[in-house]
Design goal:
globular, four-stranded antiparallel β-sheet, mainly beta, single chain, 0% helix, seven-stranded mixed β-sheet
Length: 127
């Protein structure tokens, strides 16, 4: 089992930047593929980005491509989401999640493929 804790959320003006962190404990993240999802008030949880832990292949939602960068630090057992050029529509609770290494590439965007979830961190972008 793995425990995930997000941090780094906050209030930022449109055009600003934030870096979210997802620290893992209990098991090494080498055993999982990792993803970021977000949920805005009144909306369903949506995929943001994911990374295949063994080969580093990354996946992004079209809405964040070119603005968000997912990365991982194996030594620190931590995953990051660097967000730039933030927009008010990026406002949401951001969650990190872990999926089995056997998750196929085409399924990395599906929330139901992820086994473990963090508690979320709020990101608010003001206009």
């Amino acid at each position: 089992q793995v425990q995930l804790v997000e941090s780094g959320g906050g209030l930022v003006q449109a055009g600003g930047s934030l870096r979210l962190s997802c620290a893992a404990s209990g098991r090494t993240l080498r055993m999982y593929n990792m993803g970021w999802f977000r949920q805005a008030p009144g909306k369903e949880r949506e995929f943001v980005a994911a990374v295949s832990w063994d080969d580093g292949v990354t996946y992004y939602a079209d809405s964040v491509k070119g603005r968000f960068t997912i990365s991982r630090d194996t030594a620190k057992n931590t995953m990051y989401l660097q967000m730039i050029s933030l927009k008010p529509e990026d406002t949401a609770v951001y969650y990190c999640a872990a999926a089995p290494l056997t998750t196929p590439a085409q399924a990395m965007r599906a929330a139901n493929e992820y086994t473990y979830w963090g508690q979320g961190t709020q990101v608010t972008v003001s206009s």
